[in-house]
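Per reviewer request, we include the raw input and output of the structure prediction for the construct analysed in the revised manuscript.
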Amino acid sequence: MLNFCGKMVLNASLGLFLSISVLQFSGCKNEADAEKKSADCGELAALEFSENLKMGKLCGEDYAEIRSIVGRDTLIKRFKLGKPLERVVALSSAQVGYMLRLGLRDRIVAVGEGKYLVDSLLYARVQNGEVAEVGNGPTLSLEKLLAAKPDLVFDFATGGGMDDYERIGAIGLSLMLTSEWQERTPLAKAEWIKLFGRLFGVEALADSIFEQSKIAYNAARDLSLSAVTQDDNKACPRVLVGMSYGGVWHAPGGNSFTARLIKDAGGCYLWAADTNQDLQFTLEEIMQVADSADVWVNPGMFATPEDLIAAEPRVKFIKAFKEKRVYQNDGIKGAGGGNDFFESAVSYPDEMLINLSLCIQNSTNGADSTRKGFDWYHNIFIF
């Protein structure tokens, strides 16, 4: 166990060297001096919701600090923030989503794979060759990445075989790993828009969007919870999540993003009390609780009842399936099949919550037809 600049770093002996480092987008000429200076100036203040992002001033200069869980390791990076970025590469859908919400589409000069984009204008720019495709993981082209001449490359790390950040870092490009996808609450994910606001010089807009989203989210949450607690005849709908692959049912733990979203939408997640990060069950174990679940959310990668039956015929005995209350988050897709839930939903937490709440509490009605622009969740038996 090692300690760098007051931060705990785990399992560095596993081959991944982890430390706090400083990435300068502009300003200081001496990186070593800048790193020492930022470390000497103390700690950055935590944000209101995020567990993985800190922002603020150290010694009078702006910094961001990002924590990423990489396999069994923890990677912490500190970034000195300078002038607004003009040209960036976004290798994840959520990074694109934050930028779109801030009106920064024109700053994206390259993406990983354009077919997964949902935004029609950005998708068209990729098709027309105006925005480059550089690939992801093993398919990432360092030549195309360099040719894009970005001020910064946004990437992410999972600890798996698709990680490419070490290759990108080796060619000298400025690199930032974002870990919004590892946050455990919708507002924590949404709060990352503040980082993008600072990076692109639109802090006031980003702060305003987040504050409005927070107020709307909390109001929607309170409404959902009151609908359950104030109606003596309306019990909290019990929610099943996940799907079986190869005989193993995979579901998120009780401290996960999905579990929190279900709770705030007025649902009772079956495994809300289990704090493990990922849960695995046999199908037999699932069938034992299947009759207690009123709603089934996020049934794996499957989009239709027929897909579910083909993958595992026994799901037809699950109560929520028999009663046609199965909700998937792929209600908005792009021309190439990309799922907007992973692109824009993260920056619209209030709309996401309202959407899921309508599904959980409105029997088989699914999403509200007056809110089609935000219908990520939908009943697979209806649409």
